[in-house]
Specification:
Oligomer: single chain
Order of helices and strands: EEEEEEE
Strand content: over 45%
Length: 97
């Protein structure tokens, strides 16, 4: 909590925790949604700390709340829609071999 702003004024707040040749790790605080994206060289996963959301992955909908964790498959379009929020999560992107 000390690295977060007191209130979420913008749609999204991202604080990078690690960014090197192996991984990107960040805290993300999200009001409404994170737009569609797809990765062909990054293994993405995240864990929800606060709030609730739906993660749309390749036509499937996965509901997540506090403690919910998901791995995003390579080559799958995915987005996140906040259903009760804002959502606070830790995101990790590892370079795929």
């Amino acid at each position: 909590k000390p690295i977060l702003p007191k209130t979420l004024e913008e749609e999204v707040f991202i604080k990078i925790l690690r960014n090197d040749h192996e991984a990107l790790q960040c805290i993300i605080w999200l009001k409404n949604e994170y737009p569609d994206e797809v990765h062909d060289n990054l293994k993405e996963s995240f864990i929800v700390l606060e709030g609730e959301c739906e993660c749309h992955i390749g036509g499937k909908v996965i509901k997540l709340g506090p403690g919910g964790y998901i791995d995003i498959p390579l080559y799958e379009h995915h987005d996140v829609v906040v259903t009760k929020g804002p959502v606070l999560a830790i995101v990790q992107r590892l370079k795929a071999a």
